[in-house]
Each structure stands twice: as C-alpha cells, then as structure tokens.
Amino acid sequence: MTRCIGFLALRSFPFLLLLVLGCGGKTTATVEGVVTVGGKPLPMGEVVLATDDGKVVSAPIGPSGEFKLTGAPIGSVSAAVSFLAPSMSKNPLDPFPGQPPSAKPQAAPPGNAPPGQEMPPDVKERMKAAEDLLKAVSPEYRDVKKSPLKYTLVAGANKITVEVPSGKGPGKPPQ
User: Measured between alpha carbons, how far is 53 from 135 in angstroms, rounded to an integer?
Assistant: First the structure.
C-alpha cells in the first residue's frame, strides 16, 4: 500500500507542480509606439494605458512622439495623453484633473530646469509644440477613464500608434 501511494505521488508531482506554479506564460506586455495629434508626432508628454479594473501604466513621450512601456497589462486597455507643463496648478492641460495637489506628482515636470538654470532651447521648443498640439485636443483624450482610444494588448511585444484627433469635438477610436 505504501509503495502504491509513493508511486502515485511521484507520478503526479509534475502535474501538481504545474498546477501550483502555473504554465509560466507572460502576464504583461511591452508596448512600443508613437503618439500623434492630428497626424503630427507629439514631441513631449506622457502616454497612459489603463484597464477597466484600474491597472494603469504610463511612459514619457520622446521628441518624435515615440514611447516604450514595459509591464503593461494584457487585454483591453484605454489610452490617454497628457502633458506635464511647468505650471501644473492652473494648467488647462492638467493630466490629473479633480485630484488634490497632494495626489499630483511632486517631481518637476519634463523640461523644467533646476532653479537658476536656463532650459535648453530644444526643450523649450518641444514644450511649446506639445502645448500647442494638446490645446486642440478634446479633454476626453487626456482622461484615461473617458478616452475612446481602445487597444487590445497581447503578452509579449506590441506596437501601436496612439492617434489623437485634433479639434474640440469628440473623435472616433482607431479601427
């Protein structure tokens, strides 16, 4: 009887191990892409992806509109764009609308130079271009809970273009 139990335990060990550890598949995605506003690359800002159950990831947007996210949740996500301008307190492009100042990031926004130092001209130009582009964006595209931009991410590598229409009216999500 003891031999029978030992034999069964030995034979079922691999199956139990798989059951406990899972199949080892990836549960997150890497997302690379470009953010455009009205067909033009957004030269500065942040892209935010969120699931319906509240998982949120974000990444900075580079000079040509490019971004790379790691650890993104797989499945359906909404996308939004934001711009952390130098004056966050009364900024109409506030990426954290309705949240108290204590809930907002305390780090300096992108492009801010340390006190007493001048911001590089190329950064000033990128900030101005990004602000101008985002002024023409409907607020729903800056709020991940209201954004009509939807994507489906799979485990592993994903490439997307976050196409934000310019103009104040609601846009159509990408196909």
Answer: 29
